[in-house]
Amino acid sequence: MPLCLLFLLLLAPHCLGSVFTAPEQLTSTKYDFIVVGAGTAGCVVASRLSENPTVKVLVIEAGVADNTTEADLINIPFLAGQGIGTTIDWNYTTTNQAGLNGRAIPYPRGFVMGGSSSINSMIYFRGPSEDFDRLAAASGDPGWSWENLQRFIFMNERHVAPWNNRSNAGEYDPRAHGHGPLLSSVTADPFELDRRVIQTLSDHPEKYPFNMDLNSGNGLGFGWIQSTVGNGVRSSASRAYLHPALDSRTNIDLLLHTQVTRLISTGAAGSTFTSVEVAQSAGATKFEFTATKEVILSAGSIGTPQILMLSGIGPKNELEALGIISRIDLPDVGANLQDQTILSLQWEAKVETLSSFLSDPAAVNAALAQWTENKTGIAAGTSLVNTIGFLRLPEDSPLLKSGDPAAGSNSAHFEFAFLNTFLPNADQPAPLTGNWVSAAVTLQSPTSRGSLKLRSRSAFEHPIIDPAFYTTSFDIGTVVHAVKALREFFSASAWDGFLGSPFPAVAALNTDEAIEAYARTWATTVKHPVSTAKISKIADKAGVVSPNLLLKGGANGVRVVDASIFPFAVAGYPQAEVYIVAERAAALIKETWSLK
């Protein structure tokens, strides 16, 4: 190779966005924008802002690069969820949950580029249009309505064929999909289980309506799951947004392995927060970086309120009790935590299911080898869950007498997801042989609200996380109803010759009391925390951010863009709604600073 060409190749990475692994490596301490968190929202905002070549953007990520030794757990669709509990997970734990028989449960969040979009189950479901209309009503800003968000929805996601180019006609609506960098697809490998689900819908269309596209704004019915998978690989926020920006632009830098310990207040009143303090461990040297325009806080529903409170922004009495000077008294920081639960039930199958494949190490290894070779085969697509259903309680249900917590009549109270193998609940023993199928019941519209509080003044000590699961009669009552509704669904004639006996623990669920006991024993988080920095109207004293996502309480220089701003648990899947919020947030920031 000619020396001149080698010289240019060596220089090329430095001519584009740079990736640093320690604060002292950066050559500048000032940027136009500092994005805290390279998760779902942070990747979008950083990418969109860096589209303008006149601004300089710094992204600070506490976690690791997404090409680490755990990269296969991120990239291989078949291994979705296997990164939980590893080095790419924050590995949080909740407090002992009274509603879960005193159990403390793991609380996964992504500790890696892409955040939770790199470790989640990849389901892309925007939810009903009513979710966004409720967001618009709660914020007083019609810009957050479904209709007014359409251009941002189309900017985000693009539907593609599964790896084997199987025809998916009639399984999704092309009109509901756009031209964005995030790729989504339906399954490449429908199972007999899925055919039975679809047959049940066909036999009972009034009771179980088929929804051709659950991303269309219609939030009820049964349909095919759309997953963030394209070309046989997970399409995460980092793959879709951040890597392309870093690979093609000179005005964006990424700092990894570095935690923001607090926002630094400046100005006469101490209410401007355009500088961040960072460190790589509790005892490490601290560094400071300054945004000349804004700090965008995208650390998620756990990290964002923790950073705010460590900065003196939050409930005054709680902060002062820890020796933190109160800068902005915002009692709702860390309050109102909402999350959803998931509960698995299992049945024997009279036909071969994915259980046979999963119990054969040679077959699994061959599938992984095929993926490594050419990104094809069963490992290149979503396989465990292909069909899903969203349902409501009956209109005359006593559980609705005190009001309906869902966003509207088109929004679900609970969800069924159908899995072609045995899905154990956490710590539940699973059979080693046989063919099995499972159905997961998710509580979509919970009324329980918990909290997130600081454990100490250290950013390196996990906060106190209390989702307060099953602390209302509505929540546990809805789960009991959902389990009975699931059994009724499986009693349809379409399941004859397919379903065998239920797993013994499921066979014992013959009374409401037994179902409730089962739920409290086995339910866990579906990993959808929201509302810890919720949005509210400009004139409202409650809330944390205003309709434009800027901090309330007289604070300046900080905007929050992540799932913490949702005022209610969302009826869709948060990753999809966060992408859309982040797209509009980036546009609002550009408008504020007259950037094209």
TrEMBL record:
Keywords: FAD, Flavoprotein, Signal. InterPro entries: FAD/NAD-bd_sf (IPR036188), GMC_OxRdtase (IPR012132), GMC_OxRdtase_N (IPR000172), GMC_OxRtase_C (IPR007867). Its cofactor is FAD. GO terms for molecular function: flavin adenine dinucleotide binding; oxidoreductase activity, acting on CH-OH group of donors. Belongs to the GMC oxidoreductase family. This is Aryl-alcohol oxidase-like protein. The keyword Transferase does not apply. Residues 1-17 form the signal peptide. It comes from Mycena alexandri. SUPFAM superfamilies: FAD-linked reductases, C-terminal domain (SSF54373), FAD/NAD(P)-binding domain (SSF51905). FAD binds at V112, V260, P574, Q575. Residues 300-314 form the Glucose-methanol-choline oxidoreductase N-terminal domain.
